[in-house]
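Protein in question filed below.

…
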Amino acid sequence: MPTIKLRASGLLLLLLLTACGGRGGNPACGLASVAGANLLLGAFSTPNITLSAPPRRVPVTLQVRVVAGPLYHATVTRTDSLLEVTVPSDSARNLAPGSGVLIQDTTGRTRGVVLFDAPPVARAPVIGTVVVGSHRVPLVGITADPDQFADARCPLFPDSTGS
């Protein structure tokens, strides 16, 4: 049994380090990201916060956060009545997302998109598409304070990615 515990501990440590970007990252950010992602998906069961249509005001660039992963900048366009959020494929070569969640804060400001490797929340209206290379996945949306889903030391959508 000690070998199994050691392997599980090592796997958890590897997951946290990978989630935080490895060298010099904060392991708590990886754990906070996974916990925050679960809270975000759970919030869809709260009445009146799921977006039924894309927000009227959306910036032409948005930050896109991969759950337990890196932050990207994406461009936003409108196609008919839906949004298309495009992550540059040269910066996100190995991404294979399953869905995205657009977060609009309670003031009406569109804050960013969280990318999941799973399908979208059941029965959530699709408000657009996230495009990453050859992948096109559904985008759903929610109105909520993004700080509810992140540790203050590890914001989902910081003002700058530091690049």
About this structure: Strands lie at 61-66, 71-79, 82-87, 99-104, 110-116, 128-132, 135-143. The first helix runs from residue 2 to 19. Residues 1-24 have pLDDT under 50 and may be disordered.
